Amino acid sequence: MERLAKGLKLENEELENLKSEVNGMEHDLMQRRLRRVSCTTSIPTPEEMTRLRSMNRQLQINVDCTQKEIDLLQSRGNFDPKAMSNFYDNIEPGPVVPPKPCKKDHQSSSKQAVRSQPRDEDFEGAPWNCDSCTFLNHPALNRCEQCEMPRYA
User: Is residue 118 within 8 Å of residue 132, measured between CB atoms?
Assistant: First the structure.
C-alpha cells in the first residue's frame, strides 16, 4: 500500500512539473505573438487620433446635412428623383460591334452549318428572365446570376 502511495506521489509531482512546463511554454508563445502583433500594427499617435476624430465628425455632419436636405425637399413636395444625377445617365455605351460582312453563297452555307450544330438551348431549355431584376439567365441556373433570387419564386 505504501508503495502505491509513493508511486502516486511521484506521478503527481511529475504531473505538476509537466503542468508548469506547459504553462511556461504557453506564456512564451503568447509573448511572441504579442511582440509580433505589436511590431506589425502601429498604435496611432494622439495627433492622428484627433485628426481621425475630426474627420469622422465632419463626415457625420455632412451625412446629417444631406439627410436634412432630402427631408426638407420631400416635405415641400419638390423632391424629384429624376433631378438628381441618375446613375444610368452616366454610363457610356459599350463599343459598337460592326456587322459581319457576308457573301450570299457564304451566307446560305453558314446558315446550314449553324442549323446542323446543336445549341446549348436544345439540351438545357430556354434562358429565363428573373422575376426580380429581369436579367436573362442561363437555363441551367436555379438562382439569378445577378440578384441571387430563386428561379421559381
Answer: no
What are the angstrom distances between the C-alpha of 65 and each of 62, 84, 108? Answer: 5, 16, 65
Residue 76 has what pLDDT? 75
> What residue type is assigned to position 118 of the chain?
P
- Please write the tens of the pLDDT for every residue from 19-63: 999 999 999 888 888 777 665 556 777 888 888 888 888 889 888
Contact 149, 131 (CB under 8 A): yes
The pLDDT value recorded for residue 49 is: 84
CA dist 22 to 17, 31, 100, 119, Å? 9, 14, 76, 66
What whole-number distance in Å separates Cα of residue 153 and Cα of residue 143?
Answer: 10
The rounded distance, in Å, linking the Cα atoms of 100 and 106 is 12
Three cell numbers written together for 60: 457625420
Give which of 124, 127, 149, 146 is closest to 138, Cα–Cα.
127
Grid coordinates given for 97? 460591334
Q: Which amino acid is at 38?
A: S
Instruction: Look up cell 429565363; give the residue.
Output: 128
Q: CA–CA distance from 8 to each of 4, 5, 11, 14, 18 (Å)?
A: 6, 5, 5, 10, 15
CA–CA–CA angle 105, 111, 115 (5° rounding): 150
